[in-house]
Specification:
The protein is an all-alpha fold. It contains five helices and no strands. It has helices at about 5-40, 45-60, 65-85, 85-105, 115-125.
Length: about 140
């Protein structure tokens, strides 16, 4: 009686190698997707992005009265902290708030147009899914 074990053994090795390759490919794809998701910026809601743009727009009309500017800055910060869900977008907007308030009070050197544009780009990364494009005007000196 002849048993064909070498053929069965070869088939088992082939199927095992194919299965191992499939598992490795699946792991690499899953790992790549996880890594991409982990490194993407958070996505703010449409409401957060609208609030951010409203804050930037209000910053364009700040008075030169220090007390009024301080009141605006305090009120805006409280609203942002209590209502804005995306803290990373909030951090970007708080930077613009600070620059605008300091400029309105005549303190310090205003940021360059390049710095404002870079901040806008970073903030817009958080609003890419919301359909709102944030526009940050330069901070005048």
């Amino acid at each position: 009686m002849a048993v064909s074990t070498p053929v069965r053994k070869n088939n088992a090795v082939r199927f095992g190698a194919i299965a191992a390759a499939i598992v490795v490919v699946a792991a690499v794809v899953a790992g790549g997707l996880w890594w991409k998701e982990r490194n993407e910026p958070s996505q703010a809601s449409k409401a957060d992005c609208a609030m951010a743009q409203k804050t930037v727009d209000e910053a364009q009309e700040l008075p030169s009265d220090k007390a009024a500017v301080d009141k605006w800055a305090k009120s805006t910060a409280e609203t942002r902290r209590s209502e804005m869900k995306d803290g990373y977008l909030g951090m970007r907007i708080s930077t613009y708030e600070y620059w605008a308030a300091e400029n309105a009070k005549g303190k310090g050197t205003p940021p360059s147009n390049k710095e404002v544009a870079e901040l806008a780009d970073k903030a817009n990364e958080h609003c890419s899914d919301s359909g709102i494009e944030l526009k940050f005007p330069p901070i005048a000196s």
